[in-house]
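Before the break, one more example. Copy the sequence into your notebook; we will annotate it together after we see the structure.
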Amino acid sequence: MPTAHVLPQDLEAFCHQAMLRLGVQEDDARLGAQILTMTDTWGVHTHGTRQLRNLLKNFKVNRLDPNERAQIVREGPAWALVDGRNAMPLGTAYRAMELAISKAKANGIGYVGVYNTSHFGAAGYYTNMAAQQQMIGIAMCNTDPQMTAPGGRGKVLGTNPLSYAAPGGDHPAVFLDIATSAAAANKVIRARALGEPIPEGWLVDADGIPTTDPGGFPEAGALMPMAGHKGYGFAVLVEVLCGVLTGASIGKEQASWIPYDDSSVPVNQGQTFIVIDAGAMMPADTFKERMNALIDYIHGSPRARGIDQIYLPGEIEWKKRAAVLERGMTLPSDVVESLRGLAADAGLEFPFALID
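Here is what the structure looks like once it is written out:
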């Protein structure tokens, strides 16, 4: 299957134009293209522009409404609850994190919970919004059940991703963006589409037996929690903060954001955005110095034989992005296939040269 070499600004412009053609409002189209393209520049192609075509299909079956806007329904000085009103979820998440940042600037900490929303891409984009403001960001969401519980053989909880980002002082922001499952569902689905096996420890089959064959997923089987009971415990935390606390759907009530059929029933994911202003607790320069000290300490710690560098969380992604901004990036074949379908949906020519 063909790949394509693209410049990030060209990819962002194409996605922006496709969304406008399909009825997305200008500001949401701009934000969506920016968020998904940046994710691709990190090398996280499972959660970048590959996701856009399926997300936009939700508008066609009226699960999402391009003319809606999320609304604050209750708030206090340091917190807010937002009804996403099934608006464009990428824009909703961006504005929710902006609100959490604003509340943290005023109060030292800010919490914003969102319900009646859908897939927001990579959580790490939003936590880095806080890091860019010299604050610590946390973001998470609950998703449709794809993961089993320890001792179980069916789907109980979603992959329930969790991210944090902290300003890195003189270094790039330190950030982590992970599913609480052993792997994100999209990685297993992508391996299935490519006809590739998956690593051990990612998946159990319909009988709860570990397997490296993704062929039956997602119709049968379930993802395994990362690190066993530890990942399972974090997934429950995400379900509490994003589902129970916000009023969003929980557990088996949560539907997949991918419109596998023509159902118009909204997804009602829950999302949580938390921001901590370190500068409210200590002088900003002191926090910067302490982050520099932590990063330098980890970089300078003893390395195993044959290892040239110890990386901080997110450091590899920033290196990939720097290279992409200089030389462009090669999109994997499954991303190209999805974008070619998006071009057809939007009545556009696919603008990138294919590489066989």
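The domain at 1-60+321-356 is CATH 1.10.1530.10 (Hypothetical Oxidoreductase Yiak; Chain: A, domain 1). The chain has two domains: 1-60+321-356, 65-181+225-299. Try to locate both features in your own notes.
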